[in-house]
């Protein structure tokens, strides 16, 4: 909790600000998303975008975008932190493929569930076919699906190898395919990105979140590119997409 000692007013103020933004988002969910029928998933993704946009100033995030912003299809991106979801959701309506553990996170897990996230248990191989069908349904609706194929977050020094199990819908060329690289930076002297923005190893959510709220600002750089020629074998496609993302660093 060193951030609270160093910047007590900033952390305290942002903690209340965060709570207020999340409470407002929760209050807006029912009138925005209930009783929408087939449009419910789209309504939820737009609602999530509004919530994420309210959260950006809470964390002091400033976004820079390079390349064409995707609006539909499948987007594969490297994964550094829970902040990735806030940043990506803020710039475009999307449905996220998240690890099943996120479902049980306090507060944030509820937001992930009601936003229509697709949860994957990577320990259950029998679930892959069902998840691929669910992803295909969302893609058919025209929404953007965001997948973190590394399977876990990292400290950002490199891009971990991509797992191919959930890339089957991307091999059929029915939907646009995109790659993205997300990178963070902190002001000089305000800490280390790998240890204080990235959420990985055995870090604990509460202390990490408090420390992040103490940062003066966080720069988020997003690079996007469309993949025109793609492999039809999902393992080869995983290697192809990994190479594209790694080349964007």
Topology:
Blueprint: H1 2-6, H2 8-33, H3 40-59, E1 61-66, E2 73-77, H4 83-91, E3 94-99, H5 108-114, E4 118-120, H6 128-140, E5 144-147, E6 177-185, H7 193-196, H8 205-213, E7 218-226, H9 234-246
Parallel strand pairs: 1-7, 2-5, 2-6, 3-4, 3-5
Antiparallel strand pairs: 6-7
Gross morphology: globular
Low-confidence stretches: none
Q: What's the pLDDT, averaged over the residues?
A: 91
Give me the secondary-structure category: alpha/beta
Helix % is 40-55%
Number of strands: 7
Please give the CATH architecture: 3-Layer(aba) Sandwich
Number of helices: 9
Compute the number of structural domains.
1
Describe this structure in words.
- This protein is an alpha/beta fold and 249 residues long.
- Helix content is 43%, strand content 17%.
- It has nine helices and seven strands, in the order H-H-H-E-E-H-E-H-E-H-E-E-H-H-E-H.
- Strands 1-7-6-2-5-3-4 form a seven-stranded mixed sheet, sandwiched between helices.
- Strand 3, helix 5 (108-114) and strand 4 (118-120) form a beta-alpha-beta unit.
- Helix 2 packs antiparallel against helix 3 and helix 3 (40-59) crosses helix 4.
- The relative contact order is 0.18.
Short summary of the structure?
With 249 residues, the protein is of the alpha/beta class.
Keywords:
7 strands; Glycerol-3-phosphate (1)-acyltransferase; seven-stranded mixed beta sheet; globular; 249 residues; alpha/beta; single chain; 9 helices
């Amino acid at each position: 909790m060193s951030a609270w000692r160093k910047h007590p007013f900033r952390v305290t103020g942002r903690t209340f600000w965060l709570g207020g933004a999340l409470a407002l988002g929760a209050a807006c969910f029912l009138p925005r998303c209930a009783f929408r029928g087939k449009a419910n998933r789209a309504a939820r993704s737009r609602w999530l975008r509004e919530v994420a946009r309210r959260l950006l100033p809470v964390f002091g995030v400033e976004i820079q975008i390079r390349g064409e912003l995707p609006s539909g299809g499948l987007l594969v991106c490297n994964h550094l932190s829970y902040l990735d979801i806030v940043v990506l959701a803020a710039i475009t309506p999307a449905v996220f493929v998240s690890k099943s553990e996120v479902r049980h996170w306090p507060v944030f897990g509820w937001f992930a569930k009601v936003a229509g996230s697709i949860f994957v248990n990577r320990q259950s191989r029998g679930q892959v076919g069902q998840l691929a069908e669910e992803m295909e349904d969302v893609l058919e609706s025209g929404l953007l699906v965001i997948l973190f194929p590394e399977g876990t977050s990292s400290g950002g020094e490199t891009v971990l190898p991509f797992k191919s199990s959930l890339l089957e819908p991307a091999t059929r060329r029915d939907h646009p395919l995109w790659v993205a690289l997300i990178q963070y930076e902190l002001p000089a002297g305000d800490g280390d990105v790998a240890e204080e923005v990235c959420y990985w190893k055995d870090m604990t959510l509460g202390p990490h979140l408090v420390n992040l709220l103490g940062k003066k600002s966080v720069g988020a750089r997003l690079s996007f590119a469309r993949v025109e020629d793609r492999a039809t074998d999902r393992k080869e496609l995983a290697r192809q997409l990994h190479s594209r993302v790694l080349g964007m660093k």
